[in-house]
Design a protein that fits this description.
It comes from Danio rerio (Zebrafish). Strands 6, 7, 8, 9, 10, 11, 12 and 13 form an 8-stranded antiparallel beta sheet that branches. A 3-stranded antiparallel beta sheet has the order 1-2-3, with no helix packed on it. 43% of the residues lie in helices and 14% in strands. A hairpin with a 5-residue loop joins strand 12 (166-170) and strand 13. It has 17 helices and 13 strands.
Length: 471
Amino acid sequence: MVPWTLRREYNLSPPISGEAPKSHSLERKQQEPIVLTKWRHSTYVLDISDKTTWFYLFANKKLPFKNRWFSVNHPPRGFGLPVYREPSEKCGVLNVTKITEHGKKVRKNWASTWTVLQGSSLLFAKGQGSGTSWFGGNQSKPEFTVDLRGGSVEWASKEKSSKKHVIELKTRVGTELLIQSEIDSVINDWFRALSETINTHAWESDEAIEEDMPESPGSEKHDKEKDPRDSKKNRVVKNSSMESSEQKKTRVKLKKFLTRRPTLQAVRDKGYIKDQVFGCSLTALCQREGTSVPNFVKMCIEHVENTGLNVDGLYRVSGNLAVIQKLRFAVNHDEKVNLDDSKWEDIHVTTGALKMLFRELPEPLFTYASFNDFVEAIKNSDYKQRVQSIKDLIKQLPKPNQETMKVLFKHLKRVIDHGEVNRMTTQSVAIVFGPTLLRPEIETGNMAVHMVYQNQIVELILLEYENIFGR
């Protein structure tokens, strides 16, 4: 390799009286070139503002100064050791405080700090110094640095701070900061700059998360035990390592999704998710709606009594399951449902949805705890005692169950009253609603026997409705 010599001349003559002393740092407006002289060849001039030049010099561990060479470890007096830093993208004085650090809440401590946005990093320091760049001259070093990759920025709510013009900055490692300025235009510029920076470096966020994840402790030991001479084995290991890297990326993305996913309660508080009607307990549903009988039950009963009492096979004939599921979805998502709409014109869709509501109750209308008592009551050979026992057991049920049962059986009585047209007798209604309204908590081998008792209980209540619930 052909040796190179470097020549750099500095004018260190004392300044003329009255003139400000000149800086010997690399931040001078007019900087002298470095002349590289190659033996027996022409000279080549390098720009000293180019960081590649200084990387070359430091690689050779030599510093040119006044036609002499000096070691990097022992620079001459008066020589400003160059440090290359990229210019800051934005800087200024802001009020900053941490509210969360690594996922743990910390006490607010507002402080006026010199803030610098540089690349994907946000740096904070107490003092500004005299220069325009971050590390030049006598500026203070940053107190802490925030990596913006994978972060988010938004305007802070009043719950977070009572101050005006406050930005809330969240990082991927669980640190949250509040940034504030009294000047509206200044904080708007910072919000725009931070948003653009986060969006610009969004593609780097996954790599940044991968850097934060520790490597498997046994992977390095496993690599050392491999036989490099076995090419076939190496190919298999290489393929498996590629698969593991893909799995690692998948884990990282899944971890990122899970950490950013809000809790179910938070989503409910914002109103995105509401408690459903189908599958909700009867007591909770009535309490939420402020009624003793669910609104959807009353809606279905009213619609059937107005339009469908004369339909053949009412409650016995099944409706279109796909349409019933659409109605179920609309009710669960709090949509305005009008059963007179043409898409619900089939009365069997309404009756099917009503039966589905009772079938999907977490606990049936006749509660699990009272099932065996009702079965024992229906076995009583004395008819009057049988009716009285059923009446007493119904009074022991929760209030929403009693009121809903009263409204439902009154409606089913009206269906039976039109039996000559719809061909629905007391026994056929009992067969339809027996397994829907009461069932054991744990199914046993006596399913057929239980079904007989279920039908008999419903049939008895329909026959003795006025005696049990009153006129």
